[in-house]
Batch of 2 targets.
Target 1
Amino acid sequence: MRRTWLIAPLIGTILLGGLYSSAVTAQDGGQGAPGLGDPYYPGLGNGGYDALHYTIDLSVDLQTNTIRGTTTIEAQATQALTSFNLDFAGLEISQITVDDTPANYSRDGFELTVTPAIPLEIGETFTTIVSYSGVPTPYADPAVGATPLGWLRLANTIFVVSEPGGAMSWFPSNNHPSDKATYTFKITVPKPLVVAATGVPVDEIDNGDTRTFVSEMTDPMASYLASVSVGDFVRVDETGPDGLLIRNYFPTSHATALTETFSPTSEMIAYFSSIFGPYPFDVYGAVIVNIPFGVALENQTLSLFAADVSGEVTIAHELSHQWFGDSVSPATWQDIWLNEGFATYSEALWIEHNQGQAAALDYLDELYKTIIGNAMGAPATPAADNLFDGQVYLRGGWTLHALRLTVGDDVFFEILRTYYDRFQYANATTADFIAVAEEVSSQSLDEFFQAWLYDATVPEKP
Ligand code: TRP
Ligand code: ZN
């Protein structure tokens, strides 16, 4: 689903196709590109089609960490295709069908090339079913150092933390945030284990010894934000603003304390909705993994927290990503400060709302000292092997505070709202944000953004 990009190229190609149909079929009736040319991850994602819906239907064995099942991908060809690629790493494939007919396939690293029995025409929607099984291999990503990504099992809990590339460790996809899609999750586990999955929980099917937890993500989602967890969880529901369901999954042994820890969530949703725009999705909540591995991740509708990082500021950070990161996603991984800078600044906004302006300014002063102390580099050009560095978070966050000091509160919040409204459920580039800031403020901000986002030297506070 490429809300902003798909329509125009498709129409252009159809028009051309009308004029030169035989030539276009002969030239383009070929292979979908194996990557989308992301500046940091050229191999992630694939060309030639637009993923529309994934149904991930897996049986999970917690003891052996084995998964078995199918992922069904509904997609639309954006060119004529004799073959197309999916991103999928490890695991054993037993069959692939396209439109119910067995397809040929080959694998090279995480590139899975599927050759349907009958070539696909431009504009055609088609259904690919990949049947597979095995123990997922954690994905080693250069951007996050030693942290293994994707489907993980630690201390008798399974959980998924994929950003940026780990989704391909557990389901085949067009693994790039520029191709969002809707999702159905059907995850089967032995009783009494509980599944926490992204999306609205719609069904829990009793199969005797096992249960199938079904959830639906009806809003577009990037593959890196799809997540399931399996463990000894208890589901604790709350009602958020305007009747929003907040469903949290806590380790049973810590449910009482964690219910208290996460109790500010509803007020945070109300506050962020009032300054950014309505909460984007049909449900929210947190899943807490009782392992001290020090990470939290903003999976769509279901942020994940390691037990040691579930403090209030982190809760606000991950929640704010539902607007900035999940609803508005980066167009490329180079634009990651649009996620992390915004979420870091949202921490300060929550502190300002909850503890007052002085506390927020103290917080921001500390961040600025850290930026200066470490001579943090430019947020918009992080090192490829350190995508989630402090320069992206802290200096990215401070870029927004500096913008606020430059244009004033009213204009600043109007910029945030306009940017969110324009790019919700889609993708944005750094240039898109700069354009909105200039449009709403009626100022040329080239020098400002050059200094804060691109220059190596840390700018003075405005
Ligand atoms: N986006 C996460 C945050 O909110 C950080 C992060 C990036 C991460 N990649 C990850 C966390 C992989 C866990 C696993 O700051
Ligand atoms: Zn973040």
Note: The radius of gyration is 22 Å.
Target 2
Amino acid sequence: MKNIIVTGGAGFIGSNFVHYVVNNHPEVHVTVLDKLTYAGNRENLAGLPADRVKLVVGDIADADLVDRLVQKTDAVVHYAAESHNDNSLKDPFPFIQTNIIGTYTLIEACRKHNVRYHHVSTDEVYGDLPLREDLPGHGEGEGEKFTAETPYNPSSPYSSSKAGSDLLVKAWVRSFGLQATISNCSNNYGPYQHIEKFIPRQITNILKGIRPKLYGDGKNVRDWIHTNDHSSAVWLILTKGKIGETYLIGADGEEDNKTVMEIILEEMGQSKDAYDHVKDRAGHDLRYAIDSTKLREELGWTPEFTNFRAGMKDTIDWYTEHEDWWSAEKEAVESNYAKNGQ
Ligand code: NAD
Ligand code: TDX
């Protein structure tokens, strides 16, 4: 694999993957296809060698552009998406357009040119799990975590648009022999995450003297993984994964939101209860948890960054040192949330 296209490579996770590939696989050239929406930022690719990484600013739903790029490549790794649940509750249309029509456009081009395709998706396609405290034996039994066999049951316009795109890929594999794999990953954290998302929103609130905001009672659980570990898993699936298979990516990082909030406050030298409870998210998923046995046993993947508190400290340091990366957007992000009582 010498030439790959990374869609959404100027976003949070896609840019991490581009850095991962450039640093670890010197033979690979990357074309980033990114529309540079509010979530994309050229700066996320700063410092990468120009002879190995090229940014094409464009839309994944632009069939002519996609066809021209795909015919010259060995593989497409598809990260580009509208990615924020809260935005999807306000205006679902961009999620349908990019996540469904955009994916359709890419897989049609990959089918036509017989190009390897990897589809990056989310655990949210499976809906949610009950809280452990509501399960007999505190959830040690069957159905406690998501596996590749868990039925799809998405809750939000975002997760249903991702579910729709996954199903298109599965159908293209079966009906047209598309050379594809799918990965469904849990919640990522780390540097370069947009400040609309939970962890960077709270860190940057504290840095700006704004009280952090917790939705509802904060009992909702997310299964956190460092984005570097997501990147290593995607590379392994792209190069060693079995065509037609789905791999779940997760690093056993379950934490409830209230605990995450308290860790951030403590690590930033604040009192643990110095936050506000705000209006809950509509349809708010209770718990996500990934069973990544298949990825670990079949492909030999292991996560490296499993100390959540240490990862949080590094992330806090990064946002503290990179105020120039996020400060211009802070006011607009907070004023949007405020309009919604959040
Ligand atoms: P992000 O919002 O930070 O980045 C998305 C990128 O896609 C941006 O650079 C944006 O400019 C680009 N983009 C959006 N629409 C486009 C279009 N029509 N054409 C071309 N480029 C477009 O998102 P992220 O958090 O980095 O997520 C990346 C992928 O990983 C998404 O597919 C998401 O569903 C998936 N994922 C995210 C998480 C998470 O915790 N953030 C977890 C699992 C899976
Ligand atoms: O201010 C907040 N307060 C709060 O309590 C925000 C922004 C969020 N939350 C809660 C909602 C969730 O339970 O924190 C949790 C995490 O929220 P987000 O960062 O918005 O992530 P989530 O909705 O879980 O989705 C993320 O993980 C799966 C990504 O945004 C998706 O792209 C990915 O598919």
Note: The chain has a mean pLDDT of 97.
